[in-house]
Amino acid sequence: MVETLVVGGVVLAVLVVANLLLTLALVGRLRTLQEMVANQVVLRDPALPQKGETVGRFEATTVEGEAFTDAALREGRTLVGFFAAGCRPCASVRKQLLESPPGIPLMAFIEGDPGDPDTVALGASLKHLARVALLSEGDSVTRAIKQAGYPTLVLVDKGVVAASGHYLHEVLT
Questions:
Q1: What is the pLDDT of residues 88-117, one digit of tens each?
Q2: Host H or E run for residue 61
């Protein structure tokens, strides 16, 4: 009987020590994360175009049939956005743009089939505040601006990337 109590006590002591070590490890990890937040370490998508990069050559045609090339981005500031129909974050960014237009020219590139009603509706909703063009497979625009998923927003100042991100607050601050 005494032997059983000793074995039980030893097992209980081992479990208590293991629990204590696990708790200390969690506290250490939380402190590391807390320091990252306090130092405002920004986790940025490395695939996005970097500030200071020059926009490459591209040619696109708007839904109205106008030519739009990289030459148009060499003057002033332009916000370039890449959107896709059915993309929830894109819908959120589109809603923000419609509620509060950025006050600078906006060029919207939309991925999708020109015959798809959702793609057409997305383009129509952005036409009020942007020039709109549809993207096709292997389009020169995505290579020239280095689009990284949907939505991708790039603020271009005189042909050079001034800011990039997936949300408006990342590019318009």
A1: 999 999 999 999 999 999 999 999 888 999
A2: strand 59-61
* Average pLDDT, rounded, for the chain: 91
Q: Long-range contacts of range 113-118, CB-CB < 8 Å, 24 or more positions apart?
A: 116/85, 118/85, 118/86
Note the pLDDT tens digit of each residue in 153-162.
Answer: 999 999 999 9
Cβ-contact 148, 47 below 8 angstroms: yes
Contacts of 25 (CB under 8 A, 6+ apart): none
Distance CA(118)–CA(93), nearest Å, equals 16
Can you tell me the distance from the alpha carbon of 70 to that of 56, in angstroms, rounded to the nearest whole number? 7
Q: Rg of the chain over CA atoms, in angstroms? A: 26
Say how far apart CA 123 and CA 50 lie, in whole Å.
Answer: 27
